[in-house]
């Protein structure tokens, strides 16, 4: 358990520190056939730019004219993959039979990519690009490669890291757009709900994948109490008390009170947020949400006439933390990020509903409505939506604060800092708590789909946050 509790600390030390030149070298060494590597003329491998990342390093690259994602895994996940695959090779050498699938999250990623790519799910997913045969590992696994590379900690450099190359989806993240209709979040909730059904089938059809998913992860909402050891690094005492209050309530109600035992388990996406929704302007046919996952394939749903196409894309290969946990946490994690991106201190510099700030509760309700429509939550799960959402926000702001102190140069860690604190303060206080609980209840109960629509309506959950004065409040009370 002690090693599990220190994984978050070790990830800061073992975060890859790879230059663009080293990234190009990796592409040439592992993915471009020797016949295609020319000593003269332009290279068949280039780095377009480095992408935002938390503990891994990701590059948007071009290889032989095609865009791709080069992912260099953190040292913690890398060493688990290497250790377990080494043990498997030893077992094969001893008696000619393996000891089962290796307990590595990187192996779970491969299983998930392959499963979600099945046509029956209509979840077109990214494809892992295979390592060239001459450079693959001794056990023949061509889904990834390994190489000694620099990490943040000079004392641990170089460190043997696992590398994966995946197909790329062109477009702009929803987090980078100025505005979008509320229906986009409803549709995103529907999409994640459908994905969760696919995860359930993976768990029942592939025992090894389910076993691989049973791992400790500090960001798993079930482990919220473990966040407490990082709270002391929060300098602001009021913020420290706010996070502590959420953790204490979680311990009392969900753990000690036994409510967590009533939640369903499953393989979770665990990080569905606005950075995973890709926007492009393909055919000027109207605003559409297309059910795609790490691919440019799309099957659109007409929502508005804004001459844009929105493609739901989980960018699994960039932000993947999948593990077995309470199913409801997939919904509340996404709701937490919907709150963040629509709050007052984030909406004017990033994506927001109709370009308006202070629409965070409405955003969370919209996503919840879509998810519950596609993957109905139980009454026990719905009862604790606000607490579980607050738990994710508390985890995000606490780990973000700690990580930035360890790596002050990573501005990505500050992206959700201020809006995260604002969203948590709004969600977790006595003045608004009951009203927000009612809003979440309405989002789940009052689901209606118009005759020509394919997703639930959202007009009854399109409202501003309580910080804005409602001049029609008295009239609404009389008509209700």
SSE layout and pairings?
Blueprint lengths: L1 H4 L1 H7 L6 H11 L14 E7 L5 E7 L2 E7 L2 H21 L9 H12 L28 E5 L9 E9 L4 E2 L8 H24 L1 H7 L14 H4 L5 H20 L8 E4 L8 E4 L6 E5 L10 E3 L4 E4 L10 E4 L1 H14 L18 H15 L4 H5 L1 H22 L10 H11 L5 H13 L27 H7 L1
Parallel strand pairs: 9-11
Antiparallel strand pairs: 1-2, 2-3, 3-5, 4-5, 6-8, 7-12, 8-11, 9-10
Fill in the keyword field for this structure.
alpha+beta, globular, about 475 residues, five-stranded mixed beta sheet, disordered N terminus
Question: Explain this structure to me?
Answer:
The chain is of the alpha+beta class. 41% of the residues lie in helices and 13% in strands. The chain contains 16 helices and twelve strands. It has helices at residues 2-5, 7-13, 20-30, 75-95, 105-116, 182-205, 207-213, 228-231, 237-256, 328-341, 360-374, 379-383, 385-406, 417-427, 433-445, 473-479; strands spanning 45-51, 57-63, 66-72, 145-149, 159-167, 172-173, 265-268, 277-280, 287-291, 302-304, 309-312, 323-326. A five-stranded antiparallel sheet has the order 1-2-3-5-4, with helices on both faces. Helix 10 (328-341) runs antiparallel to helix 11 (360-374), helix 10 packs across helix 14 and helix 13 packs antiparallel against helix 14 (417-427). It is globular and about 75 Å long. It starts with a helix and ends with a helix. The relative contact order is 0.12.
